[in-house]
Amino acid sequence: MTEVGLVFFPAFDWAISPDHPERQERLLYTRDQIQEEGLFDHPAIREYRPRLASDEEILRTHVVLPSLETVTESHRIAAGGTIAAADLVLDGLAKRSFALLRPPGHHANRFVHGSRGFCTLNNEAIMVDHLRSRLGPDVKIAIVDTDAHHGDGTQDIFYNDPGVLHISLHQDGRTLYPGTGFITERGGPGAYGQTVNIPLPPGTGDEGMLLAMERVVLPILRDWQPDWIINAAGQDNHFSDPITNMGFSAQGYARLTEMLRPDIVVLEGGYSIESALPYINVGLLLALAGLDYSKVQEPHGRREPQPRAITDQVARICGEVAELWERRSEEDLGKVFGEAEFFERRRQIYYDTDNIYESQQEYIRLCRACPGWRAVYTQSTRVRQVAAAVLLPWKPCPSCRQEAEGQYRQLAAEGRFQQVVWQDPARGRESLKE
Amino acid sequence: MTAFMAGIDVGGTNTDAVLLRGAEVEALVKVPTDPKDLLGSTALALEKVLEHYKEDQPLKLHLSTTLSTNLIVEGRGAPTQVVAVPGPGVNLKSLNFSFPIIELDGYIDHRGREAAPLNLDQVRGLKQVLGGTEGEALAIVGKFSQRNPGHEQRLRDEISQWYNGIITLGHRLSGRANFPRRIVTAYLNSRIARHQLDFLRVWREVQGSAVGEILILKADGGTMTLDACAERPIESILSGPAASIMGVKALTQCTEANYLIVDIGGTTTDLAAVVGGEVLFERDGATISGYRTLVPAILARSFGLGGDSRIRYEKSSGVIIGPERAGTPVCLGGEHLTPTDAAAALGLAQVGSAEAARQGWQAWGESLGIDGDALAKEVFQAFLRQLREAVEAFYAELENMPLYTIREVLDPPDLRPRAVVGLGAPAPVFVPALAESMNLSWEVVPYWAGANAIGAAAARATAGITLQADTQLGKVTVPEMGWRGEIQRPLFFDLGKARELAEEKTREHAGSLGYDASGEVYIVEEESFQMVRGFRTVGQTHLVRTQLRPEVFKVRGEAK
Predict the structure, then answer these.
(1) Are A25 and B530 in contact, with CB atoms under 8 Å apart?
(2) Fold observed for domain B4-73+197-243
(3) CB contacts, 8 Å: B535 with chain A
């Protein structure tokens, strides 16, 4: 068994548009550096091919509107490559794996009207649901998102899912896209407290990131005891990144990887394609394989030491997050979500990449026995006719399943929706016909 | 006038030699190889071939030797030191090289820019730690030196002022990116260079008498001059398998674009794949005796299964063949039963005494409580099964080669063979049955037992380069030639221009090596990217890897 299974897919023939950050060139210099360092060739690292994600694999996690035809092959390969990376570990071919591929996915919500934050399909969410389809719904999976942008898509997908713990460390949403990820966002009624956000002030460097790892992330993981740890490894916290304001270095990323010891790493953003990505990825691969990364360093540019004020600020945020985690089971959910039959949530979602506005209405059945079934109504500037979906959790109680089935049949009979989607991750889309 | 050619392939067991008159085989001889006296064995084979040569004209000779391979496998050669410029990155000490490396300051980045200069005090200090007598050797290797050989060249200029041993520069050996492999390749090249020079000196003396020009066979199936071999002896490793595969290319009638080459020998079987009419090459380079190099080489996989393999019988699993050699087959007077004896006893091949083989199986069968004939059949089937498994594993490995574009993932290259082409003495026995079990057509090439020597004779000079252009920096590099130049009009230097320049440089390179540079230059690999910075295109980067395509020299003969 090799230490690290690497699914490298740079999609050298795909771009959102010719001068978009998400373009052919993005992983070119990373490829050059890994190749020159001899890491494709290292006995501890073995490279594997990606594959296409199937309709079933995508639709277990997403509701794609108006239809799956809007998903390009590049997205299917990125999602399929991430699944392939997970299977390497699951099948015992590698101790850990790294899906070093593009396009990224962590801004893609459960409902997909188009592309937002350069993401269409949520690679790691699809992979997490794939893991559960193979291992059963009781497996506990923690996702630690270290991209500089809040992992809002992944948070959206799992925010009411008790099988998943989602921790996102990111540049404070008041200063960066997508503008969310505050510590008050803590999850839905079925998984309250399992959405953990650690917003970091602009200028946070290695010291702050590693402090947050030590003070909050690792203690929470020790407490929650996941079976799997996934790292959504965005690389745009780097001091040279053109679209963020953080001060992380390649050494910091490698150290973070060593501390976290993730089972599966999935690349997210990171657009300092020459000055950061080649060195971060070499450091990350070495750390993941348990090899010496002490000499990995950016040859150009120097990281500013983190100012003392920022360290204090990070320490204060960490304290608040840790306290919320400690108190999560004492919260009165009735006060947070109300005492009605359903909790209602209305949202406007902007798709910056495709310039689409979506409006969404969601009803979660408040249930004591399970996380509750959900009904969602959505329309957008692209899909103008309202679409409806009835979503089951991985482990619905019998009465929620029955209610959800009734709701689905009723909505389907009304005939006024663009479509009515039935999503049953544990049993599949065909479960209603049984 | 029809040209005569001689080819010699010095193998581990036998040395094969051929005399070609145009496309006709005039003589094919085989002498046993004396591992202690390779030169003697080669001279003997040459002498035997020359007996058939009556012309006045000096004869052109192509030589495939195991000298460099043996030097490496046996750990011999000159005391060799390595001076490296690694810069930041993977810690060289963690890679556990079997030889010490002196690390110097300095760094060239992935674009070929100098990110940190050499430290000249440090360079001068090398005088205290390096030897420098004529018997010693040195390799100078920098990270990304294929993108900018400046540091390596500067170091050579400084060091060679007082160093008298052989010096190899990493960038001259390959344009591929892989710093650890570049270190290993340059180290081995320096280590074996002195011995290779002694060997070449002998051949230079032979040259000019009955023998005219002498060319040495390379691991990529091409030939090189003695001068080129003196500079890059490492390229002559593993020329034996390459000779066999070139023999197949010269002799086969197979018209399929994709076929499998199976070379069954006494001790081992080698597999190689032809895809789209071209033999597949190693992605990075040859691996020899655990050393991963950047030496361009035909991708061949060898495993311990051959006509003389040892046979074991276990109650639980039945017959297991190999991987070690048993020795001479019983039918030829040996002591141990081998797959060759199975073929002889079953009447599948006329080798030595079929009766002796049958008696052998009978005796072994009795001790196991099995009919002797049935045991021989079981051995034959086991051989086929193991061969088939090896073929499957070989193609599985090929099909796991990474794919980096959507186009390739959606339509992966079709590598699967449509035919099996065999050579080696046991090939007529096993290749037809192998092909039939895979539902493929088959061919055993003419002169299947001496096709390697024919391949050596039929091989042609090959030369290739790697051209890397960066229009933002206005630089273009061809490491194999040690050349880095300016792009005159960067805005107009598109991929087409890069191709043109690559072709021109390939011919220049081939010419400087003393080859006929008139053949077709084809593109082995190319890449082209727009470089965008801050939403603005600032330049392009092009990589063009070329190869002078040698015409395939066809040799006539009756296929089986």
Answers:
(1) yes
(2) Nucleotidyltransferase; domain 5 (3.30.420)
(3) 19
